[in-house]
Amino acid sequence: MDIDVRGPRFGAAVTTVVLAVVLITGSPWVLAWQTLAFALGAAGGVGRSPYGWLFRTVVRPRIGPPTEFEPPEPPRFAQVVGLLFAVVGLIGYTVGPEWLGLAATAAALAAAFLNAAFGYCLGCEMYLLVRRVTVRAE
User: Fewer CB within 10 Å: C terminus or N terminus of the chain?
Assistant: First the structure.
């Protein structure tokens, strides 16, 4: 079942703010929260993440029904990619080196911002590229 394209963009906007807070404060606890959000989105799809729940229960009823849909697999893959960057960031912030935490968090922030501001999902594009390569290899 396809999903409302506005949901992942909303999640990316919230993620952008959360990751900016991590970079400003250096808080591994805030990054741990974002890691959990990515993990839930990766495991159950973007609708199962805390930001997906917030979109579905608070935002979507106020902005009306969707007019554009997308398959759920690319955004879910993007959550996996975000999870990997967040885990690396957590390692950097908690056991070092700190620059690793900064770099991984900044990379995730850049990707989230691209999706939130321009609707360009790097993780989704990676998913499509992997699918093209694996289909040709078969």
Answer: C
